[in-house]
Specification:
Elements: H1 9-20, H2 31-43, H3 48-74, H4 79-103
């Protein structure tokens, strides 16, 4: 529950999908942004919870994309390879943690996230 508000199972499920859909980025270029964006756009007007979690997921995925691009550029000085691996592992772990917490009805805020959407 968040702020004393009762969440339906549907809210929790779509909130979780807003985070889990980011895993598409491991298969489809920019799928990590497209997946959460689709879930958020479909459900944002129907649930404040999904609106909040969709924005959180999108902000994190945009941030991760920026970190990945910087890491790719830094491959020219070798350290970028290690950073790309670290960014990928960090992203995967955070997506899983966020999905589990949100499905349990808990608020989740990603660390190291730039808040583009408020």
């Amino acid at each position: 529950m968040t702020n004393g508000m009762q969440l339906s199972q549907d809210d929790k499920t779509f909130g979780m999908l807003a985070h889990l859909s980011a895993l598409a980025g491991f298969v489809i270029p920019f799928g990590n942004i497209i997946g959460p964006l689709v879930v958020w756009l479909i459900k944002k007007d129907q649930s404040a919870w999904v609106d909040q979690q969709g924005k959180e997921s999108l902000n994190f995925q945009i941030s991760i994309s920026i970190y990945a691009i910087i890491s790719a550029i830094l491959t020219l000085i070798v350290i970028g390879v290690l950073l790309m691996i670290a960014v990928g592992i960090f992203s995967l772990v955070m997506i899983i943690i966020a999905s589990v917490k949100v499905n349990n009805g808990e608020d989740f805020k990603y660390p190291l996230c730039i808040r583009f959407l408020k």
